[in-house]
Design a protein that fits this description.
Elements: E1 2-6, H1 16-29, E2 35-39, H2 46-53, E3 57-60, H3 65-77, E4 81-84, H4 94-102, E5 107-110, H5 113-121, E6 128-129, H6 148-151, E7 159-167, H7 173-183, E8 187-195, E9 204-208, H8 213-221, E10 225-228, H9 237-244, E11 249-252, E12 266-269, H10 274-284, H11 289-304, H12 306-334
Parallel strand pairs: 1-2, 1-3, 3-4, 4-5, 5-6, 7-8, 7-10, 8-9, 10-11, 11-12
Helix pairs in contact: 7-10, 9-11
Length: about 350
């Protein structure tokens, strides 16, 4: 099988889409009988390349130009086309637009059950929950930096919280910073990422986002608890990466991230509330953190390692290809003379 991914995202960038594509490419390169090509729709030769590549299956990684190029190519080449919908429905007119677009695809994948429900309410029925994953050889507790508190000039007893990702308004980071201020010492927050300017505070340390996954894993594993205050529909890949590193999680309930956490691995709190964040953070440090750490690592590595996730995806592809082959055979038989 030859799989062609069409995406507007640069695979060297950080983010869920590029992580998905890079992980897929690396996993398939180890020899699973699938040839894999990634194309950017903005490239001048993209449209000319597709017929020459002779794909058996095309996947679009966004709902913009990539999706329309994928649809056009699938019709011309008569091959199935898949959409992986990573984003939510926040933009104006998104429901109408996505309903028109995704009804033309043979299969629509989404990373969270919440996103599948949102698409269903928009009239896009049958979206399949296909979670993202982690590389447990990189994200694991053995990456821990034992000297991290000393490097940050913190006391050994500091309770070290961490968030990693974009500093965007929907991430509700100002609520998290306010919660840490309110809690006071010995709590300290490590914010790993970049984006909009954030307020400074003695209990907050900022670190630029790490493209080096192993360095990110070392920073995560050196902390005590990941806090994820946003309640969007997105998957929250950083939550899984932190769990694999042995971190329990405090997260806002109601979003896609809540699907990753259970009572053994973290605490869910009402969204958009400084008081709730404070309560959740204080409560998690009253629990057996060592037991929660082991449970978080066990769950992330057992259920979400790429070696578990990618075979799931390959089965979905195989099912779609088999369904298309049966349909073509039935259509051919109908055309046969009596």
């Amino acid at each position: 099988m030859h799989l062609v991914d069409i995406t507007r995202y640069n695979t060297v960038e950080s983010g869920a889409v590029s992580t998905w594509l890079n992980a897929k490419s690396c996993w398939l390169a180890r020899g699973h009988g699938v040839r894999h090509t990634i194309l950017a729709p903005s490239a001048a030769n993209c449209w000319r390349s597709l017929p020459r590549l002779q794909p058996d299956l095309i996947e679009a990684g966004d709902a913009g130009l990539s999706a329309w190029v994928a649809l056009r190519a699938s019709r011309k080449l008569k091959v199935p086309v898949v959409a992986y919908h990573h984003a939510g429905l926040a933009m104006r007119g998104a429901r109408t637009y996505l309903a028109h677009l995704y009804r033309q695809f043979d299969m629509v994948l989404v990373p969270t059950r919440l996103m599948a429900q949102q698409l269903d309410s928009a009239g896009i029925h049958g979206a399949i929950h296909q979670p993202l994953g982690i590389d447990s050889s990189i994200f694991n507790p053995f990456q821990r930096i034992d000297t991290l508190r000393r490097q940050l000039r913190l006391a050994p007893c500091a309770r070290l919280l961490v968030y990693a990702g974009r500093f965007a308004a929907e991430k509700r980071l100002t609520l998290l910073i306010d919660a840490v201020r309110k809690l006071g010492r010995p709590y300290h927050l490590l914010l790993i990422g970049g984006g909009a300017g954030m307020p400074g505070h003695a209990q907050v340390t900022y670190v630029p986002f790490r493209r080096d996954q192993r360095m990110l894993a070392r920073l995560l594993a050196g902390c005590d608890v990941l806090v994820h205050p946003g309640a969007g529909a997105g998957f929250g890949l950083i939550v899984l990466q932190a769990m694999a590193c042995g971190l329990p999680v405090v997260a806002a309930a109601g979003g896609g991230v809540a699907e990753l956490i259970d009572e053994a691995t973290g605490i869910l709190v009402p969204p958009d509330s400084v008081e709730s964040l404070c309560g959740g953070i204080e409560a998690i440090f009253q629990r057996d953190l060592a037991r929660m750490s082991a449970a978080a690592c066990r769950k992330a590595c057992a259920q979400y390692d790429w070696n578990t996730i990618m075979p799931q995806l390959m089965k979905r592809y195989a099912s779609l290809l088999a369904s298309r082959a049966r349909a073509e055979l039935e259509a051919a038989q109908l055309c046969l003379p009596e």
